[in-house]
Specification:
Blueprint (H helix, E strand, L loop, with lengths): L1 E12 L2 E12 L3 E5 L6 H9 L6 E6 L2 E4 L11 H11 L4 H14 L15 H14 L4 E5 L7 H18 L2 E5 L3 H7 L2 E6 L5 E6 L2 H5 L1 H18 L2
Parallel strand pairs: 3-7, 3-8, 5-6, 6-7
Antiparallel strand pairs: 1-2, 1-4, 8-9
Helix pairs in contact: 2-3, 2-4, 3-4
The chain binds adenosine-5'-triphosphate and magnesium ion.
């Protein structure tokens, strides 16, 4: 079953066309990554799905979404629990109930010892976990994750990738994931879309089978293929 269907989207910022007739879809439970050169419009696609930007034309049909922006937006003067509750406060949800749920999720994700800490006391990896938890708590069926691990060192990043897959087994979400790290995309995804042309008008699509994930040679070959496409697109 499809949880997202984008058809023939056109989008421009200040008269400059960025997305030209873009279509894509997402299956329930699927992990889809989007890769492409900087500035090609990846974040914009996610913002359109989240409803933060509006397309000039075309249609977007989708289930509820939870959006994790490119930069973590934890407020330094609020502790972790209050940061997690922020979207509920903004949306005027029942805070008592929200708090109960937030504490339950903090436990489930083994982060409850940090609930009273402030963002400045947390490592980059911890902050990203909290930011992800906040997205998960919105209960969107589709999670839109914009480079969630890009600011992390490689070891922390690999820990978080495994952590993410563990959590997704429990929560059964559908994911759109943006990254510049092709290894990360191959490790996590069921399918990868590589952005093509400027304005962006199509994707080259790769299905990631378990065979590819498990074979270093096949992964490397695919990575080089994808990099070649992206390099060809760089402006
Ligand atoms: N609010 C805005 N107003 C005007 N132009 C914008 C705005 N946001 C983004 N742009 C422009 O639109 C283009 C695409 O931006 P977008 O953030 O979608 O790129 P991206 O593919 O996510 O890049 P990156 O990989 O660097 O995050 C860029 O040229 C950017 O400068
Ligand atoms: Mg971006």
């Amino acid at each position: 079953m499809e949880v997202l269907n984008i058809k023939n989207i056109f989008f421009s910022y200040n008269e400059k066309l960025l997305l030209k007739n873009i279509s894509l879809s997402l299956e329930e439970g699927e992990f889809l990554s989007i890769v492409g050169s900087s500035g090609c419009g990846k974040s914009t696609i996610i913002k359109l799905i989240a409803g933060i930007e509006k397309a000039n034309s075309g249609t977007i049909e989708c289930k509820s979404t939870g959006y994790m922006p490119q930069r973590d937006l934890l407020l330094p003067w609020r502790n972790i629990l209050d940061n997690i509750l922020l979207p509920m406060e903004i949306n005027k949800k029942n805070l008592e109930e929200g708090k109960k749920k937030a504490l339950e999720y903090l436990k489930k994700l083994k982060l409850d010892e940090y609930k009273n800490a402030f963002p400045s006391e947390l490592s980059g990896g911890m902050k990203q976990r909290i930011s992800f938890l906040r997205t998960l708590l919105t209960e969107g069926e589709i999670l839109l994750l914009d480079e969630p691990f890009s600011a992390l060192d490689m070891i922390t990043k690999e820990q978080l990738q495994k952590w993410l897959l563990e959590i997704l087994k429990k929560f059964k979400k559908s994911i759109i994931f943006i990254t510049h790290d092709i290894n990360e995309a191959i490790f996590l995804s069921d399918r990868i879309l590589v952005c093509k042309n400027s304005p962006l008008d199509s994707f080259e699509e790769f299905k990631i089978t378990p065979n590819i994930k498990n074979s270093p040679e096949e992964s490397m070959e695919l990575k080089n293929k994808i990099l070649k496409i992206i390099k060809g697109e760089e402006r």
